[in-house]
Every structure is written in structure tokens, then in C-alpha cells.
């Protein structure tokens, strides 16, 4: 992925309309790769926010998103007011040729009015560069003219359906607007041939609603069994194999064409322009050739049938791409085989596109605030886990329909002042740092004191109030869902710790095993080193989470060896002592009562005691460190980790809607205040080039 | 004008968008002529409500008007909800080619969005016939093809400016919509060549804002001195005289083309259609030929200069109108000379179009309710008179800036229950009818009793609560303004009198003479006969109209002979007596005091005593019947009339915001209760075929 240089004031903000769609999302990926910052606006009528969410994880970049219809000019205006936009790439529009012949008024209104609102605002806010998503459809049947195959941009236009007419009209609007103020405007009109394929990551691709109109998505659906067979419309054309010839272009090549056009506009000095470029390969493929390539990619000969010619089809519509090659210095680099391979990866990894059965989300703050969602994985199963973007928090875990963790019903609950980090991801530095002081590379740091005389859980820059990007939700195997969140923990003004971190939190929900795996990873992308210690702060109540204390819970731990504490200063002395608590070997468990025993102590995991590496996930195996069970609900919990210690806290100070001892926390992590203890220090210092990592598992029985 | 058949349930309602504009207004006139009812919607951006107002007087028809922008779909929806629309003629749109090249976005938004909103509502409300105002501009330069002059509808399209592009796009939208639901839609696309001329009445015509783009309006402005000279762009074309050839079509012919198209759609049974027709004469005229025709019409050789060719102009753009001739059975009947003659009449009678200096109007009830306006004539002069549509009421008369009549500030004042007919036109029957009873053609009628045991001033169907159409305001000579109002006093449910009347009220304001002439005219268009007696019920106060009584007013009348009254029944006995009142011959005037004398009596005008005709305006001369003067203000008033009697009422029962004796009324009219007195009866019975008429003059000194 692109090199991260977090504070680049010269970065150009590109507004991408329809950026959640097929070509839009691939172009966003390329824009970020090329150092542009993206703002996506999309009405999501025919696309999914998941593409944006996935792009954030894929690109490790914040992508500002607006769920706005371009036709709603006053909503659209807010984007121009809020952002310093340099240029626009305009994809938004209805695009199904067949549908356009059924409901033409909707196509004209949506495509033309949306464009007019956009252009009016660009005029008003002096945003004067636009790349427009046109289509080879504007040529109509180019075979009606002599010598117009391959089709050059000079070919007379003549669209033959309402969709094509809207593209044609928008081209006219752009031409007329340019002619009215030639010095102001720079318009690149890109006429796409047949975009196919998907991002090689398999994370984004085409997700057509209903029956696909296009050859490749249709074949893909046949291949995964969603459609019976492919219909080939006519094999009596004058081509190599009798089927019609089209110009297919890999969507990643197409996306790159937009970057080339944008750079061309950027590099056009002093005067305006309005110019059209074909984006095609220049190489035609027959339907059967594409069929063969796809069968090779999926390793199966999918069924097909030759049927009669389709009205309006012609022999050959291949692009002459010379103008783009010469002027934009762009040409296709991938072929149909590449596209088929990438499409097949996308299809097999996302057989129903962005829609995942068993995943639901809702807005946790305001409607359409996609940065504030609650996402439930395993919905409808016997193991459901809900996460929030805020703090990448575990909002709820339901075992056989019963909630077993504390959580709030909306984001506001988590943002209360006296909340106890309920369910949150804790960082940049979990647990206490004595007096909030530490030294690193010879420099002394002073953090804000927020807990007695110490700094606890990262102080004011704590992760539990930060909006994590994503999640990237996948369903890689039956019964397994993953959700990946990303936090760009950048910028001194927000974080008292040195350096910029990319924080990656991956949750794996196994609904069959009733396990929730948590994987933390952090990478320093700016600065030399930082202290780091992450954990999850879920409070469990295995019986009556919403009403009562956890009294009756039976607890055992892997080890009774615990950090000795200076109880006045509430930090470790550095010694290890033994506390009274049942271990796995004990004959009886420790039963947590209404008032006692009360724990807020770290215990040492013998196997990991001598840890020095910052990446325990890589070096250590998962060890079971605690088991809890409630005889009334008969729900058991095991906690595993790769970490050297775990804090047990019986929630004796819980407030903010909860009462003391309503939930208990088991927080695996590095040694408390390790940064200030030579023997533990190495494991909490992340240096540039290294990767911090750790794992925690919650297993329910 | 068209034959009036007031209750025709089979009449077709045509929604005319842009119906206040040049071609729209002429088409409305033709539609009404052809028996259609019109609803006009116009945003008045480039047109004037005056055209609608004038059309109402011209056609003697109610034209429902909506001041609505088509782009405001929810406002437009109200029209579809309120009316049972049969078909639409769609003129509304921006139309200046030159301007369109400057502000193309506004053209696209206005013209396309307006059309889409219209079509969406037509679809929703199942209104499926549309005549669309397209333009020969869609052909662009037809000379680029061989054999396309004269231009047939089959000529390939290629507009060369944003205006033309909007027309082209709308044609595409109509075609695509038709193709999507072929059975539903009937679309006639009319491609106009060059509309010129004006309505032969001189009442409506082209009223371009700013510098006219077109040849004829430009020449007209040169002729009246608003422009210096005509520029002829090139005389080196290959034509008869070297100037380019265009196809000019009289706007009345063009309007008739719309009727022909609408009838064609009406007559197309069982299936839909979408078809284009050229509306042109088929005969080209050169610029200099048109120039010569216009000079002949205006009787003057207006200055012109040959300048260089204008970019984009071509030699010849003449229509091939055969399709319209064959299919619509329409062809032009008027020529360029006719158009020049009618244009010259329009121009000389309306040198500044619909704008008249010294005339202002405001809304008297709700914004955009053009049926409820106050219109002031002579504004800014020493004699200003304000009229209302409601009751064709005299709202105010200002003499040297001082109001001398009672009136209210808005319509609501006039609609108060206890208001005393202040300033209103009184009818259908002014003054009392004994017991509300009368017989006519052997039938006995009983009116609602509203005054003691009698019916006064027409009872519940009184004119003072009715909205008069218009006014048609003109400024025929310096210092003279006219305002004509029309009331269709139709329908038994609203009027207790028999028969349908067209009531015409004409006011003539002479600001130099400080006179206000009132002319009443009524025509029976349905039924055999009706009683009728009209007057104006202005209350004068020549001194302090808004604060005090008229005390001190000196009054003299033409005659002290007065109708004897049965004071119990408040109706005439039939005898004439003499009352105590100063006549013009008396040595001293009657001075009206704070309390006395109190009059509510009718006096007889000797010259007109024996009147038998219902049209006094035609048969009688104006006679001065009363003079009033106030020594404090030094304002004098003379009242003249053609009528046989005048009621003097000292306003002793005034209320509704006024106090007794704040104003006095002098109401010329027929004999009180004449309908029930054999000797007077003939003068108040209007028979079918006769015309009722009378005149009143208020002269101030």
C-alpha cells in the first residue's frame, strides 16, 4: 500500500460521486494509491457502504463519506462548504440500459439533475476540474458509419437508449458549460468500453442488484450456482467464432485511466479544456473468448446456450484508444484473463457481493453517520457479537440469546464521563503509567494524570472515544465472521504519545464454537518509537447482565502469582507475590459474592512471564488464563491470550448506568507500568519497522 | 368572439405551461376560440400576468392562472390535484439562444427539470396528451447536409447552442417515454420556425425583456425610437438580395398549429404516438424583404446598416411543412405583411409591452393570488385611483395625494359581514326590491330578504363579493388610463336572478382632468331576460376621510324631486315629492352637519325621468346630478350620469371600521324597486340580445 505521510498539507481532495459503486470504488483505491485524498458521496441506491468501509481497511486511509443524493442540492452543498475540494470525479448515476428503457424519466431526472446540481455547486465554489464517467454507449451503433471500427472519439454520437441519452446530454452540458467560461473549466469526459473484473485483493468488486445485465457478472453467478446457464445471443456474426466482439477493460485499468485524466487536467496550465477520451483496450474479444477465459479462471466449464441474436446488438464495438495513449499516457495493462481471475476471486470470497447473511448494522448516533454504527455478526445464530466503530468496542455478546457483557444502547452511553471503558479497545497504553511519566530515547514524557497520581488507559487520548474505520466484515467460512477495524492514531494534538500508529483490530466470531478472537496489531508509520499496550475492557456477567451483580460466578485462573502493588500509589513494586484466588488446580473455584472478594490486580501467566517481544501474537501460543462459570445460567467463559499478564477487576467502581460488581473484567496485556520497569520495558516499546501484536480469545460454553 | 355556452360539461381542460408568454398567450386565445378551457401555469420570469388578464377580457373567459415554476414539482402537483386536466401544451422554458450560451446550466435546469416534473406528474395523474413547443433550432445547420433545404422532419438533428440542446433533449425524453409505454402516450412535437407578429386585437404580443434577439421585435423597437438602427448581418449570401433566408410564421398561425396538433392527438384512437411536425410557412423571406414589409406596415423607412456576417448564420433555413399540411390539415394563412401590420398595431398601442408607467398593483389577499389584486392607475400623479378585482371596487381615489373615499387596506376589509358595500360595483340589482319579489315573463321570483323585509343590492349574489376578471389596463393617450373588468355572472347556484350575464365595468382615469368615468355594460348570454340595475357605491369624504365625519360638506343637487317612500316598508310609493335639499339654483348649499340632515333618498333627474331604455349610456347624455365641496380641503366633487335617479345616503349606519357619517354616497341608477312599478319597469329588464348600459362620472376640482 501507499507510503503513509500523515501530515501532507498539499494533498488534493477529490470528491468522488458514486464512489461506493463498482468503478467508483476501484477508482478511490487508485486515487489513494496515487496520493489523493477522497471524499465519497453516494446515495447507495445501487451500491453499499461496505465498499467504502472495506476501502478504508484496504487503503489504510480515512475516506470521508456522505450518504447524499446529488439531486438534493442543499445536502450536496454541505460537502462543498465542509471541504476544500480540488476536483471531482463524477460517477454517480443510474446505469442499467434495460431498466432505462422501462423508467426513462427516472434516468433523466437522476442523471441530469444530479449532474446539474453538482456543476452548479462547482461553479459556486470554484471547483473547476471534473472527470466525467461517460460511456461508449454514446456512440450507439458505430457500425452504421464506414471506417468507424475501432471507434475513435470523432465518431458521430447516437445513443439508442435513455441511459445513453443521459450520458450524451451530460456531455453536451459539459461542452456548453465549458464554452460559456472557457478559461475556468477543465473537463475530462471518459467514454468507457466494457469494464470487467475486480480488485485483485478480492475485497471490492461488482455487486449488481437483481439479474446482471453484463456478461461477466452473469457468468460469475452461473459459476456459483445463482443462475442456471449463460445465454449467448447469436453465434452467426461475422467474427472468429460467430459471437459479437466487444472491448473489455479491467476495472483496475479503467480506474487508473481516471488518475491519468485527473493528472492531465492538473497539468493543463493556464487555460481550460473539455475533451473526450475512450477508455478501452483497443482489442476486441468475442463472447466465447471471454467465456473460455472465465471457465479457465474458475476451473469449470459453466453451462451455456446459444440463443437468437438480441435486438440492437451489432458485430463489433471496439475502442480506438489512441487518444488516451497519446495524451493521457495511459493504456490497459491487464487482459481478459486477469479480469476473469480477479472476478473469480471476488466472486468466491463474496458470493453474494457485499451482502452477508448474519450481519446487520444500525446507526449508533445519528442516521447516516456511517462512522458511528453498531454491527452485529452472527445475527440469528446462537452466538451474536455486536461491535461499535467507537473504540472498536464490543457492545454485546449474546450466548443462546442471552447477553453476557455490559454495554450501552447507543454511542452516547459510551461517551459518558464516568463510563468505565466498557467493552472498549484500550490503548495506546492500557493500565497505569506511574505518575504519567516515562522516558524514551533519552526524552522524558509527561502524560495527563487521570487516575489518582497516575495516567490510566492512555489518558485523554484513550482509544475508547475514537472512531475506528471499517469494519471490513467477511464470512470466510461457514460459521465464521470477521470484522476488521482500523484506527489512524495520528497527530500530536490528539495523542500525547510520540509517533503515528496504524492500529488494526480484528475480531473473529465463530458461531459454531462460540468463540470471539481478538487480534491487535499496530505499526508505527511516523516517529521512532512509542510505548504501547493494548487490551479489551469487556465486563462480563454470565447470568443477569442488566439487573444484578455477577454474584455466584465461579472463577479460576491459570496462576495466583500476581504483581505486588504499592497500594498508595496503585502501581507495581516490581515484585511478584501470590494472591488468594482459585487456580485451575484448586479443588474449588473462587466464588465472586455480592461484595467480596474484590480484585483489581494483575496476575502473571507463567508461560509468558519472560516475554520481551512486542509481538506476542507472533511468538507465543494462546494460553487459557481464566475460566468463569455461573451455575444458574450454566454459561461458562474461558479467556485465552498470548500476553504475559491479565488484570482481574471486579468492577467495584462501576457507575454510568451500572452498579458496582455488575460485571467483571479480565484484561490480558503487558506488565502494568512496564515502561517504567526495566525487566518488562522491552515488551511495550514499539519501534519503527516492528509490529506490535497480541491475541485474546473469549470462549463460551 | 366565441359563442358562450356557459355550462358545457364536455369541455376539455388544457394545461398551458408558459401560457403567459408570447406564443403561449396567443395559443390560449385560439384554444378558447376552439372551445377548450385553459389553465395557465407560468413562473412569469420572462412574461407578465397582464397577458392573462388581457386574455380574460379579450376572450370573455375565465382563465385559471397559477404563478408556479414547473421545477417546483410539489406546487405543480397542486394543479393536477385541483383540476381534471385532459391535455397539456408545454411552452414553459427559457428561450434566448444568446443567453443560453452564457448561462447554460440555468437553461438545462429550467427547461429539462421543468419538463421532467411535468411529465412525472402527467404519468402519475394519467394525463397522457402533450403538445411540446420545440424549435427548428434542433436541426442546427441543416445546410450541412445535401438536399435538406427546405428542412423536412427527417433531417438529422444537431443543435448548436444550449437552448437548442435543451429542446433536443426534451424531444429525446418524450421519445424515450413514449417507447417505454407506447400505448399510453400521445406526444406532438412542434418544431417552430420564426414566429412573428401579434394578435390582431393589439392586446397581446411579444414583450421581450432587454434587447430583442429577433429581427421583428428589434425593428419594432427601432421604429418607436427605443433602438437606434437595425443591423443587417451580411448581404453577401447567395440569395435574391444577399441577405439570409428564414421562414417566418405569424404567431396566430403558429397558435392555430397547436390546436391542429391537439385535435390530431384527440382524434388518434386506441394507440399512442410520438411525432414531430414542422410549423413553418414553407416560404423563405430574406432579411431585407421582411425589413421592407415592416417599413410598409409602419409607414416609415427605419434606419438600418449592413454589417458583417454573424457567426453561425447560414444562407437558408426554410421549413418543409408538408407533414403538418398532410397530417394536421394545417397551413399558414397569414403572411409576413400581415404579421408586420399586427406587430405595428401591438407596438404602437403598447410601446413598452405590458409595462405601463403610472400603473402599479399589489396583492390584496394572498401572495400570487392574481384574482385578488389592488391596481392603481395614475400612480405618481395628482389623481390616483385604485381598483380591486373584488367587486371591481374603487378602493381609493387620491386627489393631490389626499384620499377622498372610504376604503380598506386589503380584501378582508371588504368581506366583513357588516361592511356597507364601500366602493363596490352594485348588482345584479342595486337598491331595494320590495319583499324581494318580482315577476318576469309570467314567473314569480323570490329573492333572499337581507334588508328589513326587502332585498337590497342584489342580496346574497351581490357583486361586491365577486372576483372580477382582468383588469385590462391601457394607457391609450397621455394622461388617460383605462381599466376594464369582467364578471361572468353565471350559474343559478351563485345567483338568484335568472340567466347568465357578462358584466363589463370600464373605468377611465383622466389624471389631467381629475375625472373617473365608470361605464357599465351587461349582456345576457343565457336565459331570456333578467332584472338589472347597476351602480357604484363609493362613499366620499372630501376632507378627513380616515378620521372624522364629512361635517361641513356643502351639497347641491340637480333636483329636489324625490321618490316618495313608504317609510315603514322602505320602498317607494310610486309618487314623486320634493325634499328639502339645495339645488344648483339655490342661494346656499345644504351643509351636511355632524348629525343632520340625514338622507337615504332617491332623487329624480328631470332630463332622464321618462327613461324606458335599458341602455342609458347609448341613449342619454351625461348630466351633472350633484356637486359637493368642502371649504377646509377646498376639494370639490361633481357627479354626472346617464341614469334617471340618484340615491343620496349620508352613511348614518356606517360600521365595519368606519363610523356613521364618515362618508356619503351618491348612487346614480334606475328607479328604486322599478321592477315592481309598471311605469319604471321597462328600464330594468334586460332581454336576450339587448345590452344594458350606463355611465357615471366622478369629477374632482
UniProtKB/TrEMBL annotation, chains A, B:
Pathway: Carbohydrate metabolism; galactose metabolism; Carbohydrate metabolism; hexose metabolism. GO terms for molecular function: aldose 1-epimerase activity; carbohydrate binding; UDP-glucose 4-epimerase activity. Keywords: Carbohydrate metabolism, Isomerase, NAD. One of its GO terms (cellular component) is cytosol. It comes from the Eukaryota. Its cofactor is NAD(+). The keyword Signal does not apply. Residues 15-342 form the NAD(P)-binding domain. CDD domains: galactose_mutarotase_like, UDP_G4E_1_SDR_e. It catalyses: UDP-alpha-D-glucose = UDP-alpha-D-galactose. Gene3D superfamilies: 2.70.98.10, NAD(P)-binding Rossmann-like Domain (3.40.50.720), UDP-galactose 4-epimerase, domain 1 (3.90.25.10). One of its GO terms (biological process) is galactose catabolic process via UDP-galactose, Leloir pathway. The keyword Isomerase applies. Pfam families: Aldose_epim, GDP_Man_Dehyd. InterPro entries: Ald1_epimerase_CS, Aldose_1/G6P_1-epimerase, Gal_mutarotase_sf_dom, Galactose_mutarotase-like, GH-type_carb-bd, NAD(P)-bd_dom, NAD(P)-bd_dom_sf, UDP_G4E. In the N-terminal section; belongs to the NAD(P)-dependent epimerase/dehydratase family. In the C-terminal section; belongs to the aldose epimerase family. Mutarotase converts alpha-aldose to the beta-anomer. It is active on D-glucose, L-arabinose, D-xylose, D-galactose, maltose and lactose. This is NAD(P)-binding domain-containing protein. The lineage of its organism: Eukaryota, Fungi, Dikarya, Ascomycota, Saccharomycotina. The gene is TBLA0I01740.
Amino acid at each position: 500500500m501507499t507510503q503513509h505521510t500523515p501530515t501532507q498539507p498539499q494533498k488534493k481532495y477529490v470528491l468522488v460521486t458514486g464512489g461506493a459503486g463498482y468503478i467508483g470504488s476501484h477508482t478511490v483505491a487508485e486515487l489513494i494509491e496515487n496520493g489523493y485524498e477522497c471524499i465519497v458521496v453516494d446515495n447507495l441506491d445501487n451500491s453499499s457502504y461496505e465498499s467504502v468501509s472495506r476501502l478504508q481497511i484496504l487503503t489504510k486511509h480515512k475516506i470521508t463519506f456522505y450518504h447524499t443524493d446529488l439531486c438534493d442540492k442543499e445536502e450536496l452543498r454541505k460537502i462543498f462548504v465542509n471541504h476544500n475540494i480540488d476536483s471531482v470525479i463524477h460517477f454517480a448515476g443510474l446505469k442499467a440500459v434495460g431498466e432505462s428503457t422501462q423508467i426513462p424519466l427516472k434516468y433523466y431526472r437522476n442523471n441530469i439533475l444530479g449532474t446539474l446540481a453538482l456543476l452548479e455547486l462547482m461553479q459556486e465554489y470554484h471547483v473547476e476540474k471534473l472527470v466525467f464517467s461517460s460511456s461508449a454507449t454514446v456512440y450507439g451503433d458505430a457500425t452504421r458509419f464506414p471506417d468507424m471500427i475501432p471507434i475513435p472519439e470523432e465518431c458521430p454520437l447516437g445513443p439508442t437508449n435513455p441511459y445513453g441519452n443521459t450520458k450524451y446530454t451530460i456531455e453536451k452540458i459539459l461542452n456548453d458549460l465549458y464554452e460559456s467560461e472557457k478559461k475556468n473549466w477543465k473537463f475530462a469526459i471518459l467514454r468507457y468500453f466494457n469494464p470487467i473484473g475486480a480488485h485483485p485483493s478480492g475485497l471490492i468488486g461488482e455487486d449488481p442488484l437483481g439479474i446482471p445485465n453484463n456478461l461477466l457478472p452473469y457468468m460469475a453467478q452461473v459459476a456459483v450456482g445463482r443462475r442456471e446457464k449463460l445465454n449467448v445471443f447469436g453465434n452467426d456474426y461475422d467474427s472468429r467464432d460467430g459471437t459479437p466482439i466487444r472491448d473489455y477493460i479491467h476495472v483496475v485499468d479503467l480506474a487508473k485511466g481516471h488518475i491519468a485524466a485527473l493528472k492531465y487536467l492538473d497539468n493543463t496550465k493556464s487555460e481550460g479544456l473539455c475533451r473526450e477520451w475512450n477508455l478501452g483496450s483497443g482489442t476486441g474479444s468475442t463472447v466465447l473468448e471471454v467465456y473460455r477465459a472465465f471457465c479457465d479462471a474458475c476451473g469449470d466449464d459453466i453451462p451455456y446456450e446459444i440463443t437468437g441474436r438480441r435486438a440492437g446488438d451489432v458485430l463489433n464495438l471496439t475502442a480506438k484508444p489512441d487518444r488516451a495513449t497519446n495524451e493521457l499516457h495511459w493504456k490497459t495493462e491487464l487482459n481478459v484473463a486477469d479480469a476473469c481471475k480477479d472476478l473469480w476471486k471476488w466472486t468466491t470470497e463474496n458470493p453474494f457481493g457485499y451482502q452477508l447473511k448474519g450481519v446487520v448494522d444500525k446507526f449508533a448516533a445519528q442516521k447516516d453517520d456511517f462512522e458511528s454504527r453498531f454491527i452485529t455478526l452472527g445475527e440469528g445464530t446462537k452466538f451474536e457479537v455486536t461491535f461499535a466503530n467507537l473504540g472498536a468496542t464490543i457492545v454485546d455478546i449474546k450466548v443462546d440469546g442471552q447477553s453476557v457483557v455490559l454495554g450501552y444502547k447507543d454511542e452516547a452511553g459510551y461517551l459518558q464521563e464516568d463510563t468505565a471503558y466498557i467493552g472498549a479497545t484500550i490503548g495506546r497504553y492500557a493500565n497505569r503509567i506511574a505518575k504519567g511519566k516515562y522516558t524514551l530515547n533519552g526524552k522524558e514524557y509527561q502524560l495527563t494524570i487521570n487516575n489518582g497520581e497516575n495516567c490510566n488507559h492512555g489518558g485523554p487520548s484513550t482509544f475508547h472515544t475514537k472512531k475506528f474505520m471499517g469494519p471490513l466484515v467477511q464470512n470466510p467460512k461457514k460459521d465464521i465472521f470477521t470484522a476488521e477495524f482500523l484506527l489512524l492514531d495520528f497527530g500530536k494534538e490528539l495523542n500525547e504519545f510520540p509517533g503515528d500508529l496504524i492500529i488494526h483490530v480484528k475480531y473473529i466470531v465463530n458461531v459454531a464454537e462460540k468463540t470471539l478472537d481478538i487480534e491487535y496489531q499496530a505499526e508505527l508509520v511516523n516517529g521512532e518509537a512509542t510505548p504501547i499496550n493494548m487490551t479489551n475492557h469487556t465486563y462480563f456477567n454470565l447470568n443477569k447482565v442488566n439487573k444484578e451483580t455477577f454474584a455466584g460466578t465461579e472463577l479460576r485462573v491459570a496462576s495466583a502469582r500476581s504483581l505486588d502493588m504499592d497500594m498508595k500509589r496503585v502501581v507495581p513494586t516490581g515484585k511478584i507475590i501470590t494472591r488468594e484466588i482459585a487456580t485451575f488446580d484448586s479443588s474449588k473455584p473462587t466464588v465472586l459474592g455480592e461484595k467480596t472478594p474484590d480484585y483489581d490486580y494483575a496476575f502473571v501467566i507463567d508461560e509468558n512471564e519472560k516475554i520481551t517481544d512486542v509481538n506476542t501474537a507472533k511468538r507465543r501460543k494462546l494460553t487459557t488464563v481464566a475460566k468463569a462459570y455461573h451455575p444458574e445460567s450454566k454459561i461458562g467463559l474461558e479467556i485465552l491470550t498470548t500476553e504475559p499478564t491479565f488484570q482481574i477487576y471486579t468492577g467495584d467502581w462501576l457507575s454510568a448506568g451500572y452498579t458496582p460488581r455488575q460485571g467483571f473484567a479480565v484484561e490480558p496485556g503487558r506488565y502494568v507500568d512496564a515502561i517504567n520497569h526495566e525487566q518488562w520495558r522491552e515488551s511495550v516499546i514499539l519501534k519503527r519497522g516492528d509490529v506490535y501484536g497480541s491475541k485474546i480469545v473469549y470462549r463460551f460454553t
